[in-house]
Amino acid sequence: MPIYEYRCGSCGVEKEHLQKVSDAPVAACPACGSNVYTKLISAAGFQLKGSGWYATDFKNGTKPKSKPDAEAPAAKKNETVTATASTADTASPACATD
């Protein structure tokens, strides 16, 4: 059941009432008994859980973890070839000075 907020126009008291959606609005102020007791508009109180929501994935400025794609192994393979090539380049001048 939702919680509705009400405010009295006469005495200014604010109170929350737990009611069904189909229930009629509360008409009289419980504090002073006046009929100037109106329902307020308020934000809903719920949380979005799971992945893909702003609050869980993007709020801290980080991107959600993605699935590994097929290009990642190819990039590692290129890094290995580059590292081997640079090692070979540094070994060649050492042999040439002998």
Give structural notes.
- With 98 residues, the protein is an alpha+beta fold.
- It has a domain at 1-44: Rubrerythrin, domain 2 (Single Sheet).
- It has helices at residues 54-58, 71-96, and strands spanning 3-8, 14-18, 37-39.
- The protein has a three-stranded antiparallel beta sheet, with no helix packed on it.
- The model has no long low-confidence stretch (mean pLDDT 74).
In short:
About 30% of the residues lie in helices and about 15% in strands. It has helices at about 55-60, 70-95; strands at about 5-10, 15-20, 35-40.
Topology record:
Elements: E1 3-8, E2 14-18, E3 37-39, H1 54-58, H2 71-96
Antiparallel strand pairs: 1-2, 1-3
Strand-pairing-aware structural class? alpha+beta
**Spatial strand arrangement across the major sheet:** 2-1-3
Range of helix content: 25-40%
According to DSSP, the number of beta strands is: 3
Q: Low-confidence parts, pLDDT < 50 over ≥5 residues?
A: none
Mean pLDDT equals 74
Q: Regarding CATH, which class of the domain at 1-44?
A: Mainly Beta
The largest pleated sheet is described as: 3 strands, antiparallel
Q: Overall 3D geometry? A: elongated
And the CATH topology of the domain at 1-44?
Rubrerythrin, domain 2
User: H/E order of the elements?
Assistant: EEEHH
What is the CATH architecture annotation of the domain at 1-44? Single Sheet
The proportion of residues in beta strands is 5-15%
Number of helices: 2
Cα Rg: 33 Å
Cα(first) to Cα(last) distance is 87 Å
